Amino acid sequence: MAQKSMGISFRLASTRQHLFNKVATTQRLASPWSLRNANVATHHIHNARSNVSTPPSPPSGSSGFTEALGSRKRVKAKNTDMLYYTASILIGTLGLSYAAVPLYRMFCSATGLGGAPMVGETKFAPERLVPRDNHRRIKVKFNADTSTSLQWSFQPQQRQVSVLPGETALAFYTAKNKSKDDVIGIATYNVTPSKVAPHFNKIQCFCFEEQKLMAGEQVDMPIFFFLDPEFANDPDMADVDTVVLSYTFFKARGMPFEKQA
Fold first, then answer.
1. 3-state class of 90 per DSSP?
2. Which of 35, 190, 199, 218 could be cross-linked to 176 through a Cys-Cys bond (beta carbons 3.0 to 4.6 Å apart)?
3. Which residues contact 259 (CB under 8 A, 6 or more apart)?
4. What is the pTM of this model?
5. Of 86, 114, 90, whose CA–CA distance to 197 is shortest?
6. Are 137 and 111 in contact (CB under 8 A)?
7. What structural domains does the chain harbor?
């Protein structure tokens, strides 16, 4: 019995030694390859890490808020400048529109454009108000019109006058307010043929001035004028024997006015 136990112990010890030897052999064979693979893996990991760029750190909450606030202020300032620029253009355009009419009237009066009689102090020098007795007389006819919105009667007191170049003449128009309200009217004028306008000079006139008539009031409106002496020397006037002076009355803006106690 004792011999049988010793045999079994010897076989177990031999088997254990055999297994130990195999494991040691396996480890010696695998170690170089395992080390090499580990080195390769480590090399690849290092390269991958070196190729990846570090992303920029996001701005902090306070700096981002400051940048957004600054951008909003810049946009607001730009919009404000644009608003001021647009408003200045509109105001300038409105001012020019109101000034256009009187400026045009002044230009027409100075140049005779559009049949507007010329006005100017140099035209009224005494040496220019000398009739050309050797020239034919020119008929000056008078015409009157009123706007449909103006309840006035308006007409010339004379149909025509005959004048020499350089000779002054006085004519009258009569206007009557036929409405029950006080009304302000304003008159425009022109001369035909239009080429005569540079030679037609007004010394006194009611045109382009507001004329207020009380309810039922009637007034006489004078026109004092003359033809320039140069009319006689202008070859373009050789075929002109008749000149027509026309006035048209319009209701002024904002009418009718209320009666005052």
1. helix
2. 218
3. 181, 182, 215
4. 0.54
5. 114
6. no
7. 121-251 (2.60.370.10)
